[in-house]
Amino acid sequence: MNYSSYLDTADFQALALHIMIGIEIPVHFLGFYCILFRTPISMKAVKWGMLNLHIWSIGLDLGVSLLTVPYILYPALAGVTLGILSKFGFPVSYQTYLLGVLIGLLGVSIVSILENRYYLLFAREHWWRHVRLPFLIFNYIAACSYFTPAYYYIPEQTEALQNVFKMLPELPQEIYDAPVFVLATDFRYVVFPVCFMTTLMVAESATFIILIYGNMAERNKKLSLSRHTMKMQTTFLRCLNIQTSIPLLILLLPMGYLVISRIFKIYCQSANNLCFIIIAAHGLFSTFIMLYIHSPYREACFRIFCSKITRYSSRFSTVSTVL
């Protein structure tokens, strides 16, 4: 059997992700520049939280598009990696664990920026100031360790690979000849830890959003905050919610397909490839949204690019006049 489309192949997966990383790197550098040098005093309190979120978004992009480049034979939890780490001989089990940790740390960075906002606005004199450090440490430990059961119960590969090939339809010969790695044959060791971490991050994020809006509404009733301050805080919080929620909503598309694929045992390699391309684009979407919705960053980008266009146009006009 041969794949019916170039989209099914490992070559397409590698090429698409390598092209994407070429687009992502300059955009991410622009994001770094804006956070470090164009964050106004009014946003100084959240500067490092935004930088932390940006770093882990970049980490996930680099992890998928450059370091590992996964080619997954879903609905089996098996596949090969085509990235730099494989070229240097890193075991696929380590690479899989790395991706799991990067996803967990991204979730923790979102919770951290929301927690920081709650603390700065409402909890500096609250009992929460004594709990926040252990809370954050717990989250980071959870992000670095939640994938341990999946790693610990990696099956014996020869028998597991036979089970995988029985599950899937006939594959091209190059797949049978490739060093396919099987993460698990029992999905519980992967699904339960992932569900635990996802539920924890969603619950914590929702809690801080509710606490922030609830406290703002209460203070607004008591008129303890000026209208200008309230409007500024509400606008910034809305921007922050958009910055964190839209990329996560984008991730729901591939995640939803992967769940459906597992339930109904659908094997479509081109869809698998496109799912990981969308996942790899998460940080790119996040950076674009950050640069657009926060007005200081948007204005900085307009000045940078408009000045370059103006200089280019003036040079072109000068050359045309001389000719």
UniProtKB/TrEMBL annotation:
Q: Where are the transmembrane segments?
A: 12-36, 48-74, 94-114, 135-154, 189-214, 235-259, 271-293
Tree of life domain: Eukaryota
One Pfam family this sequence matches? 7TM_GPCR_Srh
- Keywords from the UniProt entry: Membrane, Receptor, Transmembrane, Transmembrane helix
Q: Which organism is it from?
A: Caenorhabditis elegans
Q: By what name is this protein known?
A: Serpentine Receptor, class H
Output the InterPro entries linked to this UniProt entry.
7TM_GPCR_serpentine_rcpt_Srh, Nematode_rcpt-like_serp_H
